[in-house]
Amino acid sequence: MAPAGAVLYRNLRTFQVWGANTEVGKTVISTVLCNAARAKLKDRVQYIKPVSTGNIEDADSSHIRKFGIDRLAKHLDNTDEAFKSLCLHQYELPISPDRAAAVSNLHIPNDEALLSEIRQVLSERAELGGWAFIETAGGVHSPGPSGTSQADLYRPLRVPAVLIADSKLGGISQTIAAYESLKIRGYDVESVLLFEDDYYQNDHQLKTYFKQHGTPCKTLPKLHAPQSSKEADEELMLRYYEKHSQSPIIEEVLSHMKQRHDDRVKNLESMPSRAHNKIWYPFTQSTLLSPEKITAIDSASGDYFQTLEKKQGAESLIKSSFDGSGSWWTQGLGHGNPQLMLAAAYAAGRYGHVMFAEAVHEPALKLAETLLDYLSNPRLSRVFYSDNGSTGIEVAVKMALRAARIRYGWGPNDNLGVLGLSGSYHGDTMGAMDCSEPSTYNEKIEWYEGKGFWFSYPTVSCVDGRWTVAVPPALQDQFGSDKPFRSLADIMDLESREASREYEQYRVFITQTLKQLRVEGRRFGALIIEPIVLGAGGMIFVDPLFQRALVSVVRSSPELFADDAHFPNSANAWTGLPVIFDEVFTGLYRLGRSSAASLLQVHPDISVHAKLLTGGLLPLCATAASEDIFKAFESDDKSDALLHGHSYTAHAVGCSVAIESLEEMRTLDTTGAWDEFKSRWAGPAQESEQEAEPVWSVWSKDFVEWTSNRERVEGVWALGSVLSITLKDLQGAGGYKSTAAKDVQAALFKGDSADWNIHSRILGNVIYFMAGQTTSTATVQRVQDVLRKVLV
Amino acid sequence: MAPAGAVLYRNLRTFQVWGANTEVGKTVISTVLCNAARAKLKDRVQYIKPVSTGNIEDADSSHIRKFGIDRLAKHLDNTDEAFKSLCLHQYELPISPDRAAAVSNLHIPNDEALLSEIRQVLSERAELGGWAFIETAGGVHSPGPSGTSQADLYRPLRVPAVLIADSKLGGISQTIAAYESLKIRGYDVESVLLFEDDYYQNDHQLKTYFKQHGTPCKTLPKLHAPQSSKEADEELMLRYYEKHSQSPIIEEVLSHMKQRHDDRVKNLESMPSRAHNKIWYPFTQSTLLSPEKITAIDSASGDYFQTLEKKQGAESLIKSSFDGSGSWWTQGLGHGNPQLMLAAAYAAGRYGHVMFAEAVHEPALKLAETLLDYLSNPRLSRVFYSDNGSTGIEVAVKMALRAARIRYGWGPNDNLGVLGLSGSYHGDTMGAMDCSEPSTYNEKIEWYEGKGFWFSYPTVSCVDGRWTVAVPPALQDQFGSDKPFRSLADIMDLESREASREYEQYRVFITQTLKQLRVEGRRFGALIIEPIVLGAGGMIFVDPLFQRALVSVVRSSPELFADDAHFPNSANAWTGLPVIFDEVFTGLYRLGRSSAASLLQVHPDISVHAKLLTGGLLPLCATAASEDIFKAFESDDKSDALLHGHSYTAHAVGCSVAIESLEEMRTLDTTGAWDEFKSRWAGPAQESEQEAEPVWSVWSKDFVEWTSNRERVEGVWALGSVLSITLKDLQGAGGYKSTAAKDVQAALFKGDSADWNIHSRILGNVIYFMAGQTTSTATVQRVQDVLRKVLV
């Protein structure tokens, strides 16, 4: 089944009718709207009641049939298709849909299935055009058949809303609260309608309120009082419809709704060319861009964008696009996640943003405590906030260099570099750029000046069905040739591998290199690495044993860095050089563990976290450091402090969302949400080990191994939610400039289904995919199935 | 009147009772809670109904009196103060409070007055301790007497909420929607209560829902059906209370509420010391910090923080603190602004965050279009997004240097510097730091390396009652001595001043300096200035004529920068050097105009905007640039692109909030919201000019001039929402390290009222204050009154 994404058809003006309360007149007003669309505008109309409870004869769809086309036929062009009324699921008991469904013997559709049914009806009507009205049941949060609140249930469709306000006592409050519940889920409320009531006059206040919110609010005349006989009632009802279906007010309402629909289409369709004129895109060569290449995103939910399809006629204008890059590696808990949204809104309502220097608020403090607990690193005791990974790295580097300089008594003008890994990348601000060796990303930047030394290293991938530690040619004299392993788990079994010859080779090589650098007079203030995987450098899976050896040598050999080298007393103090882990990409369950450091079983002195920190909603970064590093900035002089701090440092909204994200991810971890994925990766080798945390991925082991055997594939690996495929670069350009992955990317974007495709990003000849932490097995399967077709 | 801030008393457990709907039993359940607190816990109880409509005998406060202490006295310790019931405003007609108040002949309290009355009652009860229950009227959004929704009206008090859920048909939806409306305003909902109902059983679903949200939801037995006589009704009611006021469920509810109250106090009180242990503060020397110096912020609303007061006994634990630094210069539309909150939540619900490279979403596009329109600068045509002012400056510098290098044919390794102003500061990332001359902020940073030349210049302030352009001693040979002016408006009248001798002096000085730099072989790629005011450098108001002269010379003299200097054809292309305006602090109405550039009447080629961009809620930065600059990055080579882009580039939440902010500020501007402030600054000089936009401030001219005459004051200026006072530095340390302003800051923080104080930040011997764009004249007056006392 295709993902149930948003619906938008050029000629089918689709609206969803919501009630501010139960019994506010949704069905009567829906009928008026349907009739007016037929009678005044001579348009075709489709009414849909997805779920109805109670006697079928009293059901809303029957009401519409009775007072719609059948009775008013004399005014209308009565063809089969002109006016259809449909109820998808009818349960007999007049109670809430979930309870009525539960006690019935009937099929209970799950949320995705129900949405697909609605999409199917709309898709069939799209050719005919006109209007479609989808009437909800009860209030905005009344449960659907599965028990999910309707406001959440229908959200993926993101059909524009008509809100029927409550004209009775208390109705102002009910209406505004219902409006807010829709609005905060990203619904567009296009029209508010209610019955007149001379006594309560709710419309006065509501008209003012909705005018401020840019939505017209209109009244319909009050309904008659209930009559003694059903016939009398129906007679009056009929007269009501005859009279008001032709009213200029309703015509105005429909005209506004039509305008809004047309505006939405026009706006979406014009966005790429407007963006092409006004936006300066990040990491984009504008000469290679054209409006046709710009993806217009209408909205997003779960793992999917809802993107514009350039279509004429009756085809859907919106397609679901799997967010294959995790929106630049940020996504974890799904787009439009209502819990993250509520956390953000709560903090915005409680604080806005408040000053952080010498002040404290609960979200910043609680996040610091939660994060330190998460990292389970006895060295880390302090959290410094900034706004993104790049600024967080600048903070980390400022911390480390100062600590090293103070410890070793170097002067402020001694040039300090960093030690790192070839192919590393730590961000786009100048200080972060300077932490990496020259590359396509930085070498043309006027102020870039790489400050450091970067090691080459063996890498990990699955090649021709075999997990391999590949040794680059230049290192083969030192380390020998590529080494095959039985499994990824074996490669990650660092305890066993530390006893191997290769570990000693790594140590010797690193030590000799550092000695040589010392001889050359080079001076270093930090070791900075992306643990396990170098992201922007091309999704390079570094042999973890090499990273472990590097940290081990640096920590155990202070004499390689300074004359007055010494080991401090404290167990948690840094030795050799401060070790910075850039976990911006790799941390917080991206690789399946709460920290990437735990995969290496190394405790860094400074650890930088962003991206997944907020579950994929907002920029925020936390740089955690040891007390030892912190104390290097202590002095009687105010200006010895770490003089860094952005205006929105520790902004309450970001911190609140981050707390919610960390808690949700921890819950997923501890409640076994990933057990199905994990079980596919657990091999006999694993089970023999005591309590070993499995090495696992949401991408299946079989699929990874199958991919590694494709002719065009050079190597592949998967870990946590990341899948990385290196394609053979037949043009030989290599690296970031290669276009080898472009064909695959284009084929995935084209897709083979009218309903969805895959949006992905490439890094030269590497194409990668990133699931969220809440992505279902079905979605992963769906993506893998397409990949199997494209890579075959 | 003191600001009506949050209430929290150690021994008075105060809760506000809200209804998910009207007629859900708020009063009955409030009575049960009051009775149980008396009967089971033997505590004192205060019931408050701030506003009641309908017959006084039927009023909720009468109900409580009848079924509370009076009738149940036999169980209770019936003293005068043990159980009080109070209605503050009673209007006779049983309709919504705003309408009932409007038709009455009674006093209608405004929102602030009503809150003050409630605070007064609570403050008087604080000594006695026990419980206070404040019962709202109708639903959460039912209007108060002024017409403001209660959810907004009572928000400044931020009393923890008890939500009475709706047990009737549709009640699940009503309850969740009401809960969300409270939650998104920053209320803590501590308990949900409802009547049992065997038929609808709303409690089943609601208990599950609220469990997920961490709030206990409990039921009370159903009420009896209405009886034929009032006496029979009352008899049954009495029995209900007798029975259920002692129920273990209610005891459990109260016990939970007590725990939550105690936890809140404990949490707040422990925050400073926990923060002192775990937080690494920005720009803070930790040896000078102690828990006592850390301000614990409970919440914030409008212009005020709600901060912890370290008090024992019955005194209020929370004080309103005027956010004098505008939370590091970010605030514009008030803390907890519901419109910004809704904009944030809507975008979070609609998108989360979505990929921006080669994609477009409505908020990013609309913000780009809105901002470009705002800036009214024909040169600017492109917007590049990043996360904060510092990253936005790095982007601007990358843009400018590349454009200059391409135009002049310089190689990538030619060292380019920037031209700037002495005392400038552009941010904390390394590239932004390198744009400023060495200073306290950067000179100890290991990788800092100032790249450029920075001019000295005359400055503006009001000294001894006279507006003055002060010339620093080193420049007096060139420019003569300090020059007095009749008014600030005269100083800002650049058209007239361009005809003066001083303008020519400025131009000559600048030209000669640049010639000399050329002779020295220096090479520059950009002119970067903070227009009008240098913020972090110490709120330095630069003579705008000097800044104009600087831009003018740079633009008209390309031969000062390169041999192959030429003027491009396009009118909007840069000449000389690309001119960058860092408007991060000074732009977007901070200085009273939509852009600071408009005060200088200069059109920069690149303009950087952050802080107020989101009205003070979230980090976001936009760097706007000219098409000419944009085209410098065009090539067939992908790697010639501007290789910069943070993961959350153009995040939808930030962009949506920014659009809302820009629109709100524009509305304030165009609807004359600042006319009262402006009128105080309009002098006869102004009126003689045609259509001249006034130079104005929220801080009154009289007050500024009065301040300038204080003995301890060296100079003062006000512009837009900023007031800056330079104090005489009697110790002579000067600059950032000075402590001259510390006394004033401490006196303001101590305050002279139990209800509020002023939180401010200082820059050396400069103390400054920043109002928001929505700060009222009354608030400004209140702050000025205190300043007059402290500065006297």
Characterization of the model:
Chains A, B: This is Adenosylmethionine-8-amino-7-oxononanoate aminotransferase. Two copies of one chain form a homodimer. Helix content of chain A is 37%, strand content 19%. Chain A is an alpha/beta fold and 792 residues long. Chain A has two domains: 12-222 and 240-264, Rossmann fold, CATH 3.40.50.300; 338-670, Aspartate Aminotransferase, domain 2 (3-Layer(aba) Sandwich). The first copy, chain A, has a seven-stranded parallel β-sheet, with helices on both faces. The first copy, chain A, has a seven-stranded mixed β-sheet with strand order 12-23-22-21-18-13-14, sandwiched between helices. In chain A, β19 and β20 form a beta hairpin. In chain A, α18 packs across α19 (544-556). The longest helix of chain A has 31 residues, at 248-278. The model of chain A is unreliable at 686-690 (pLDDT under 50). At the A-B interface, α6, α9, β8, α10 and α11 of A face α6, α9, β8, α10 and α11 of B.
Overall morphology of chain A: elongated
Report helical residue fraction of chain A.
25-40%
Give the CA-CA distance, first to last residue of chain A: 22 Å
**Residue share in β-strands of chain A:** 15-25%
Could you name the CATH topology of the largest domain in chain A?
A: Aspartate Aminotransferase, domain 2
Number of domains of chain A: 2
Unreliable residue stretches of chain A: 686-690
Instruction: Give the mean pLDDT of chain A.
Output: 93
Name the largest protein-protein interface in this structure.
A-B, 171 and 171 residues
- The helix/strand class of chain A is alpha/beta
Oligomer: homodimer
Query: For the report, how would you describe the main beta sheet of chain A?
Result: 7 strands, parallel
Task: Give the beta-strand count of chain A.
Answer: 28
